[in-house]
Amino acid sequence: MAWFKRTEKGITTPTEDKKDVPKGLWYKSPTGKIVDAEELAKNFYVSPEDGYHVRIGSKEYFNILFDDEFTEFDKNMTSKDTLKFVDTKKYGDRLKDATEKTKLKDAVRTAVGKSKGKDLVVACMDFAFIGGSMGAVVGEKIARAIDHSIKNQIPFVMISKSGGARMMEAAYSLMQLAKTSAKLAQLADAKIPYISLCTDPTTGGTTASYAMLGDVNISEPGALIGFAGPRVVKDTTGKELPEGFQTAEFVLEHGFLDFITPRKELKDKINLYLDLVLNQPVR
Fold first, then answer.
1. Following CA atoms 75, 125, 169, 151 in sequence, which dihedral angle do they give, to the nearest 10 degrees?
2. HEC sequence for 56-74
3. What is the pLDDT of residue 13?
4. Which residues contact residue 266 at a Cβ distance below 8 angstroms, ignoring those fewer than 6 apart?
5. Which of 25, 202, 231, 282 has its CA 20 to 30 A from that of 14?
6. How far is it, in rounded angstroms, from Cα 236 to Cα 243?
7. Using alpha carbons only, what angle is made at residue 81 by residues 80 and 86, rounded to the nearest 5 degrees?
8. Domains of the chain from N-terminus onward
9. CA–CA separation, 173 vs 273, rounded Å?
10. For residue 228, what pLDDT is reported?
11. Which ranges carry the CoA carboxyltransferase N-terminal domain (predicted)?
C-alpha cells in the first residue's frame, strides 16, 4: 500500500549546509515599512516611506555634521564606581559590559571639526551606553567641550539622547545639571552661539538642564521630549494625556522648541542659523 506510505523522505537540507540570512540587511520601522539597510544608511537613517528617524549614535551624527575629519576630546575618559553601587548588578560590571558591547567609553563623545568650512564643537550622546544616562564623565566632557568653545570662540552644538541622570552615581550625577548649566551661562556671557538638538529620547535630567538651554532649541521629527515619562505623568496627575503628548511636534506647538528639522537638512539648518547670528554670508 505504497499510496498511503511515504517511500522517500521529503527534500531536506543538512543542518551544516543551512545558512541564516545575515542580520541587518533589512530594517522594519514602527509603522511596518521595510527598508534595505544600505538604503537606510544612505538616507541618513531615515525610513524613506514614512519618514521615521531611526536612533543613531555619535559616530553617525559626527559624519553628518562634520565635513571630513574631526578631533575628538577626552577619548579615554571613563566613569568610576565611586559609590560601590549595587542594584541587580554591580555598577562597575555594568560599565565594563557597556564598554565591551558599544565600544564606547561613556554616554557622550565630544569633538571639534569643520562644518561647511567653519569650526564647530559638537557634543553628542549615545543612548546605547546605559541608556545615554548622564553621570560625572558626561558632565565633565561637556564642560570641557564648552571651555574649548569659549577659548577658541567656536559655536557649540549639543545633541541630546538620554534617559536622564545615572542613578548609579546618585548625587554625583545630579551635580552635572548645575555644572553644565553654569558652563552654558559662561558660553552665553562670551556671546558664543549654542544650539541644542533634542533627539529621541530626550528626558529626565538632560531636559532639566542643557537640553533646554540653547540659544535655539531644535529637534528631529517624532522625538520623545519631556522630563518624566508619559506613564509617570499620567499616574501622578490622574488625567488622560493629550494625543502625541511629549512628541517633538507637541512640544513645538507649546513653545518649548524653535523648530523641527529632518535629519538630512540638519547640517544646512544649523549652519544657516550660525551664519545669521554671526552675520556671515550664507553658504
1. 60
2. CCHHHHHHHHCCCCEEEEC
3. 42
4. 64, 65, 197, 220
5. 25
6. 18
7. 160
8. 16-54 (no CATH), 55-277 (3.90.226.10)
9. 32
10. 86
11. 24-283
Q: What is the pLDDT of residues 21-75, one digit of tens each?
A: 345 588 888 888 899 988 999 999 999 999 999 999 999 999 999 999 999 999 9
> 115, 124 in Cβ contact below 8 A?
no
User: Quick one: the chain helix, strand, coil %, rounded to 5?
Assistant: 40, 20, 40
* 101-137 per-position pLDDT tens digit: 999 999 999 999 999 999 999 999 999 999 999 999 9
Q: Kindly give the residue spans of alpha helices, DSSP state H, lying in 205-265.
A: 230-237, 248-253
CA angle 178, 73, 99 (to 5 degrees): 85
Cβ atoms of residues 161 and 199 within 8 Å: yes
Could you tell me if residue 238 is left (phi over 0), alpha (psi between -120 and 50 degrees) or otherwise beta? left
> C-alpha cell of 175?
551635580
Please give the Cα distance from 144 to 189 (Å, whole number).
16
